[in-house]
Amino acid sequence: MTAASEPLLRVEGLQVHFPIRRGLFFDRTVGHVRAVDGVDLAIDRGTTYGLVGESGCGKSTLGRAVLRLVEPTAGRVVFDGTDVASLGGEPLRHMRRRMQMVFQDPLGSLDPRQDVESLLSEPLQAHGLGGGKAGIATRVRELLDAVGLPAAAMRRYPHEFSGGQRQRIGIARAISLEPDLLIADEPVSALDVSVQAQVVNLLEELQERLGLTYLVIAHDLAVVRHISDVVGVMYLGSLVEQAPADALYDEPLHPYTRALMSAVPVPDPVVEERRARILLAGDLPSPANPPSGCRFHTRCPWRQETRCDDEAPVLRELAPGHLVSCHWAEEIRDGVLRPKSAEEVAATQGVSVRATGADGGFEPDALLQGVDEPIERR
Amino acid sequence: MSIEAMPPEGALRSDVPVLEVEDLSVTFTRRGEQPTRAVDGVSFSVSAGETIGLVGESGCGKSVTSLAVMGLLPKRGVQVGGSVRLAGTELLGASDRTLRRLRGSEMAMVFQDPLSSLNPTVPIGTQVTEVLVEHREMGKREAATEATDLLDRVGIPDPARRLKEYPHQLSGGMRQRALIAMALACSPRLLIADEPTTALDVTIQAQILELLRELVVDSGTALVMITHDLGVVAGLCDRVHVMYAGKVIETADRYELFARPRQPYTGGLLASVPRLDAGRGVPLTPIRGSARDAIPWAEGCAFAPRCDNAQDDCLTEVAGSTVPLEYDGPGRELRCRHPLSYPQQTPAGATASGAGR
Ligand SMILES: Nc1ncnc2c1ncn2[C@@H]1O[C@H](COP(=O)(O)OP(=O)(O)OP(=O)(O)O)[C@@H](O)[C@H]1O
Ligand SMILES: Nc1ncnc2c1ncn2[C@@H]1O[C@H](COP(=O)(O)OP(=O)(O)OP(=O)(O)O)[C@@H](O)[C@H]1O
Ligand code: SF4
Ligand code: SF4
Ligand SMILES: [Mg+2]
Ligand SMILES: [Mg+2]
Fold first, then answer.
1. Which atom of ligand 4 is nearest to the CA of B264?
2. Which ligand has the nearest atom to the CA of B24?
């Protein structure tokens, strides 16, 4: 059952809908927030799956549903060949031990009244691991060493550490039970860049040493590209594209992925000046009332008169391992269809957006358009 | 829809920068605590139509610098020294009345968290029209029309309806636009934007940055952009001042800075950020430690405990003086005794991935 070829984690048709309650006693359900609305993904052992998307698209909810911190509305989570929903009691506890989470805000997730030693030994004691007092003390020292903190850190409290050091404590705690899967929700987004790089390197090093499998949730596409083997892009509760990291960045196929990537600033003025930006019209629609058909159609620069508004696209495999959910992905890739400017989209969809610098004429198959040919700045 | 290229009156003399900050220092003195010098001898200037960037990690003094310029620091427990001149007029020591008049008419600020700088109990339309009535002496009706125009200009859809809405009814991006609209209400000569897009999604950030870019080009506003995001700096700022522990440690135009960072801290920052256009295998080279490890400038270079180039003479005790900010070639200034060097000069614009490491 646990053949090496079987992915460590498989998520099938996962849905998480939160009821929206109104009324004097919040007793009337007036609708649902479709936080996660039918996601399929698989993560191979020892690899990193990066999940990106904008605020509110359902990334954290997906991570929490995998751990069953929220109950899925529908769908399956299969961990190491076992349907997690079928478990209860001791087997569920055991499974939870094998899946751990690292949070964005290390201070919020660490009890401020516990010193580091007690923070790190607590999970060991709770699971009866570590082999008694002496064993636990040794293990705590090993853990601190693994995340690059001095043994003297043991007697100190979370508030005495910098943000990066706190994140190291959070990671030490997460790996203390020797999990197989680590779900890291925005593990570096609260950190300064110099410290962010330390934590990214630490995660990579631990993965190599301990053979960990990661689900990394982040809104920073550059961090995700750096750390991931496979990247999934979410929009309003669904995956719109999934591909090996390099393939995704070399040739993003979904219009949303293209817009997202063109919006990420690159720390290089030469690149910044030459690349085209695909500005999107308007804001993210509400997940309580998602648009019909393709959910991206209200903002999509490539939207067509047919299919987009009334037919929901499904994920299709256009190249090995490269999945995209867009009716027109081939035509867009081959440059048969041309994008409209954000203003034009805005005009047809009744939303507004300011004019963009690079209007129309994007090179459809390059992330950094016209690298050889500078675009005139006004 | 382009904003008329109308230089604000008085600013026609382009030789006088819109803002000149000289040797600015801010010390917080709280009773029973050691005074902390949050800003320590910072100088920079911005001209009309120019964008400068203040970058650095959390706590290096970016926000305190901008609050000092705007005259928004608390009166008690704060000592401000140096000079801040807006189009030649000294602001430090100016009366509250003068400052209040200048804020809104001549200079404006946009903050990271728009919700905290908008009044939650007043519709945004009223908040924008109030600025117009107060500073541009418009009538109510005229102000309302102008407010609609402003919201439209910053890309708020259906502006006439939005004017009646309260801040919490708008999305984060819309609120930031509303705040920018208020800042623009009086066509200020100077706009200070303190992490204006940090709380926003990248696609919305792209819209806001585009808006700021247009503003600078079309109306000649002088823009001070405060950010920790080197990508934002690369795309927006003409000149960049890198700050560490309250001091400017390196100044250069953006091409120079990114192609050939000289300060080990700047080089370290650039080697720390993952790039979207870099392959997966490219390793990150972080700076060790964190900003907490800084030593007081009086004892030596504050960056010394984290610096790979540090030598004994980086400490005041050994060298007999603190590390000064000095001329480092045309348009560059540097505070460092053992800077990164580049054996052969590559043409400006070469990339700096993994520079100097
Ligand atoms: N417990 C809850 N009850 C009701 N709605 C919820 C709950 N948790 C999340 N949501 C809603 O579900 C949607 C997805 O939220 P989620 O936190 O998963 O997004 P996210 O992608 O992690 O965003 P961010 O990048 O801001 O962290 C949002 O609209 C959110 O408001
Ligand atoms: N009101 C205050 N009283 C005392 N110290 C303060 C006060 N405001 C700021 N400081 C200190 O001044 C220093 C600089 O703070 P500042 O807010 O300017 O940092 P910043 O560069 O804007 O950082 P960030 O990127 O986190 O916004 C910090 O060490 C901070 O603790
Ligand atoms: S299906 Fe249509 S609206 Fe959706 S992403 Fe593709 S082109 Fe755009
Ligand atoms: S002065 Fe010395 S310690 Fe400071 S940055 Fe330069 S080499 Fe490093
Ligand atoms: Mg989240
Ligand atoms: Mg700040």
1. 5
2. 2
CA of residue B267 to ligand 2 center, whole Å: 24
Domain ranges in chain A? 9-23+32-234, 251-376
> Which residues of chain A are within 8 Å of residue B264 when distances are taken between CB atoms?
none
A205, closest residue in chain B (CA to CA) = B283
CA distance B257 to chain A (A): 9
CATH 3.40.50.300 for domain A9-23+32-234: yes
Q: Which residue minimizes the CA distance to atom 13 of ligand 1?
A: A35
ipTM (interface pTM): 0.84
B279 with A273: Cβ contact below 8 A:
no
pLDDT score recorded for residue A370: 26
pTM of the entire predicted model? 0.87
- Between chains, do A346 and B157 touch, taking CB under 8 Å as contact? yes
Q: Residue B315 gets which letter from DSSP? A: B
Which pLDDT tens digit goes with each residue over B62-99?
999 999 999 999 988 999 999 999 999 999 999 999 99
Residue range B330-335: mean pLDDT, rounded: 96
